[in-house]
Amino acid sequence: MPKVLIIAAIMLVIPAACKKEPGNTQNPGNSSVSVLTQHNDNSRAGLNDRETILNTSNVSSGQFGKLFDLTVDDEVYAQPLVCIPSGGAGTQPVVYIATVNNSIYAYDALKGDLYWMKNYTGTGLRPPNVSDISAICFPYPNFTFNFGIVGTPVIDQASGTLYFVSRSTDGTSFHQYLHAVGLNDGIDKPGSPAEIRATVRGTGYGNGNDTVSFDPLRNNQRQGLALVNGIVYVSWSSHGDCTPYHGWIIGYDAATLSRKYAWCDTPDGVQGGIWESGMGIAADGGGNIYVTTGNGTVGLTDPADPVNRSESAIKLSPSGSGLVVGSFFTPYNYVFLNENDLDYGTMGTFLIPGTGYYLTGCKDGNMYLVDKDNMGGWSASSNNIRQTIKTSGSLHCQPSWYSGSTAEYVYVWSGDDNLRAIPFIRSSGTFSETQILSNVSGPKGDSGAEISVSSNGKVAGTGIVWASYAPDTYTELTAGPGILRAFDANDITSELWNSGQSSADNPGNFAKFSAPTIANGHVYLATFSNRVVVYGLKQK
Length: 540
Known about the structure:
Helices cover 2% and strands 36% of the residues. The protein has a single domain (5-537), classed as Quinoprotein alcohol dehydrogenase-like superfamily (Methanol Dehydrogenase, Chain A), CATH 2.140.10. The strands form 9 sheets. Strands 2, 27, 33, 34, 35 and 36 form a 6-stranded mixed beta sheet that branches. The model is unreliable at 3-30 (pLDDT under 50). It starts with a strand and ends with a strand.
């Protein structure tokens, strides 16, 4: 069982050395906005449309900038989450931060005071690190070193519970655990942690006696967790292409952490990692979940077989004791994608709000708009889908959505490209062929920008696109300095502010695949410099 190491108690007894200088302490009061899951909600559209403080007038040099740092013990891959837990912290919002050292921090979100911190590495063990993968496959550069907690946790505010996956090893034996801990104290709840184990019947790579087993070393928990109708869903990809691996989704009862569902996307094949640049599993109001998968086996002998679905967008529905494929889409040229390492499942995907459409993207620069309930399957000659949207660059990125008073957009920013705003025409249910490009040069290499959007509903002058990326570093291979930019959501050729305008606003090293969190007049930016940087309006 993982240990629970108590480093700090509640704020009132924290030593002075643990306190932070106050920033903008404007209290959002009863209208405080919570961000309980990756990209705000289960659509994964990335829009907080209840931001009443920040707007296109006050997000500017001299008025907006860095307020304080929230110091942590390692790099942060997970998106910071924000909520007001019942009791404990009173009426102030709390920001929860997970690190690759298996630590969780709970800070006052407006002032920066530390409430508690705990480490969840197993007793006598350590977090796994790049040397563990390098020892069995190849030099592995995709993480800097540790990879303990990586996927963004999810919060159940009603029960006061934070769910996340930790990883521990002694260098030989590897373990992954699902935790359910209290928001007020970080203490594991009854049944937590649950060690992650699963098997399915299949003849796929690495099977034993026609049984494919979950591998806690090779399977990388990268995508954000989802809480859907009382089930916590967790998905897995791989570490590079260190085979044998398979894509997995496992569902757990949120109250007991008993395993309810275990689904493998290539039970008779290989690969099929599920990661989507770290964006969370999407879900609709009916309890269906949606993912896209990367390179690997497609249908085994029949490409239209719903079993063995790499290179696919997939709708999964709970049925009895399992998850069943309700619909899928696989590009007609999946063989070409596989042969050229052009995974379909690289871009973060989302359900377009107020529609029945699912927006997905591929490493080859194509975005595919599909009907979420009738995705189109596979055809040998063409894609039977709603629309193909051509962009430029490799779609290793997190897109976002905005609904304004006069227009709606998806924003996407690939590596070696400019930020793009693509108008959505609701009357036709398609995207415009005319794309708007910013005037700002963007990320270098494969890794694109991670985007979030804020607005005060459809009020004019409140829509802001927030984009985080590394401008000068090929971050697939190494960490490098990042930048945070803010654009007018209705006119992305108008940049409002960026963290490079003042040395005081420098965030440190870019945290790839972690989107900015916007809540209550503050922007929380994860970094690989052992801190989360908090931006907001400066006090006068």
